[in-house]
Amino acid sequence: MGWRAVFAGSAFVVALSVGPATADEYWWRFWHWHHYPEWQAVHYGMYGLYNRNAYLQANPEIDEAYKEPVITGNRADIRGLQATLDPPRWRWGAPCCYGRKPIHIP
Prior knowledge:
Blueprint: H1 2-21, H2 23-58, H3 64-84
């Protein structure tokens, strides 16, 4: 009976110690369970607009007068979709050492 108590106690201790080690994984799943559908819908929309722009730009048979307003509108829609997303929250091991301003290409 003594070895059963030792085995059950050690199994209990191991089970309790696994929780903190996997907490980050569970929080990642919790966040994606609540936020992933919206994020995925926005990314699929942006992906479709990027593909439409690429198709229009690569196809020489489509008139430039038709392409330009469609591509410009798609780019505006992409920027609007990007504005709905939260900014990235990357964890860096060290602070960034660059002192110059970011370059923004329109």
